[in-house]
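Reopening this ticket.

The earlier resolution said the output was attached, but the attachment link was broken on my side. Pasting everything inline this time so it's all in one place.
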Amino acid sequence: MPDQFGGDPAPNTHSTTQEENPTVIEQIKLRAADTVQSFIIDMWLARHTPEKVMPILQKLIAGAREEFADAVANGGGIYAVGYCFGAKYVLLLGAELPDTEAHGQSSGEAEEGVVKKAPAIKVGAIAHGTRLRANKRKSALTS
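Inline output:
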């Protein structure tokens, strides 16, 4: 597995057990802890953008095509599964995007004559996608 996160692993998420009748102070502490945990996760997600992750995945796919050329040819392409954070990237890899977006760079406004890049994967499956917008799902699933 590639290190998609550049040595910055996802923050641990764990649930706290609540007592049946917590005191007011305990309720305030639990709400404060939930708020801090949510903020930490949001900050982590903000650091891991397509501009950082897509080049790593493109390099991985290029390496897999080279090292496992027979398997890729016999299987008709590369298959991917994305869960939670990875779901967005499976959709991006399966979409026909302008060349800049396929490599994690924003293309800004639509430019005339921009060459679309073919999907990098043949089939993708996702579950519990994080930070997905409806238009990304639709474009990836219909292409």
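Reporter confirms the inline version is readable. Residues 24-47 form the longest helix (24 residues). Confidence is low (pLDDT under 50) at residues 136-143.
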